[in-house]
């Protein structure tokens, strides 16, 4: 019996980036997708700074009850923080964050600043 190769002949290449956890350079934009490091009542993680609904500023989100969700300021859609925490592997060391982002290593990268809402500030 022959099983299909789950790796399709190789490992997937990913982009590993280091950026500031807070302040200047706290947002890394990869091929037009911004990411920020946030701290919520239910934990810290790297997330997309734009809302999956219509691109609203999710980095300015309010926290839902018990810190279990973020509420987008544009249309008040809720996103579960438990799902967000699992999407992007990341570790904070001091003032920097290293994250494994779902982009190819040759992706276009820029560092920016995005303000965070009080609910997400580190
Ligand atoms: S853009 Fe975020 S809920 Fe619509």
From TrEMBL:
Molecular function as annotated in GO: 2 iron, 2 sulfur cluster binding; metal ion binding; monooxygenase activity; oxidoreductase activity, acting on paired donors, with incorporation or reduction of molecular oxygen
SUPFAM superfamilies associated with the record: ISP domain (SSF50022)
Keyword Iron-sulfur belongs to the record: yes
Annotated keywords: 2Fe-2S, Iron, Iron-sulfur, Metal-binding
PROSITE patterns: RIESKE
Coiled-coil stretches noted in the UniProt entry, renumbered to this chain: none
Annotated spans, Disordered: 103-122
Ranges of residues in domain Rieske: 12-75
Name by which UniProt lists this protein: Rieske 2Fe-2S domain-containing protein
